[in-house]
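Predicting holo structure, nicotinamide-adenine-dinucleotide bound.
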Amino acid sequence: MEILDGKKISNQIKDEIAAEVSKMKTRREKVPHLAAVLVGDDGASLTYVGSKVRACERIGFESTLVKLPASTTEEELLKEIEALNSNTDIDGFIVQLPLPSHIDEQKVLLAVDPDKDVDGFHPANFGKMALEMESFIPATPYGIMELLDRYNVETSGKHTVVIGRSHIVGRPISILMSRKGNPGNSTVTLTHSRTQNLEAFTKNADIIISALGVPNFLKAGMVKDGVVIIDVGITRVADDTTKKGYRIVGDVDFEEVSKKASYITPVPGGVGPMTIAMLLKNTLLARTRQKVRINK
Ligand code: NAD
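Done. Tokens:
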């Protein structure tokens, strides 16, 4: 069994990006600039946005945090997005989800300029991804693909079972794994809360990508020997023995399942750190594409 070490690989990717930024600085070029919009003060969202901004600073990107109160109206948020769309200094930006319930998330995502949509959530990017055209790929599925690639995990002709059909993980990774290419070329089954007899699918899977958010959901009895396991789940479980009062638990019972797996991602230290690295990669891509557009 080999651990797919997301922490190690994400650090490699960040080093590669930092080297690229350093070359840009030597050439006196503009460095990539990522903005993050945060509405309200949800604890988990604050943590996520904070780590994205800090990651930018560490690799030499510019970053801007647009922090808006929970009372911000949809109209005010859309104005803010319009300002980011037209600000030529900003190469890419993200709107941290979830948004307060009085704001229509779809309207907001549609307002983001697809060329600056480094989260890859705009339908233009999602559609291009499905059609195997150049686009921004959402960071978490992109991170999974990169991890499989860097560990040379064979995916061609394999049966991949995805658990969960969210727009940010399950649905896009099911598309990516079925696309022509490497990683990819696998036969994909997308399962979800209405799937009957899930075990019948997981027991037949060569690769399982679990993104449902139920701690220790996937047990050893549900998988076959030699399976490749990608655990996307991140759930905070109360734990008085830790300083924070909680610990992070994945969807997979690591203790049991790792004994049968050929490759497995740990939680934490697997898909999580890859997500931030790929957001940075998308921002670098946005900068490069912006440069090409301006020079044209
Ligand atoms: P979600 O919470 O929006 O949806 C969960 C999905 O799981 C749904 O599609 C649902 O149909 C499916 N599901 C629920 N119960 C099921 C069951 N019993 N059997 C089969 N399918 C079932 O999904 P999400 O936003 O993709 O998040 C999933 C998990 O991944 C969460 O723990 C989240 O915190 C985590 N996550 C991690 C990262 C990362 O960077 N590692 C990024 C995004 C999400």
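Residues 13 and 277 are 6 Å apart (CA to CA).
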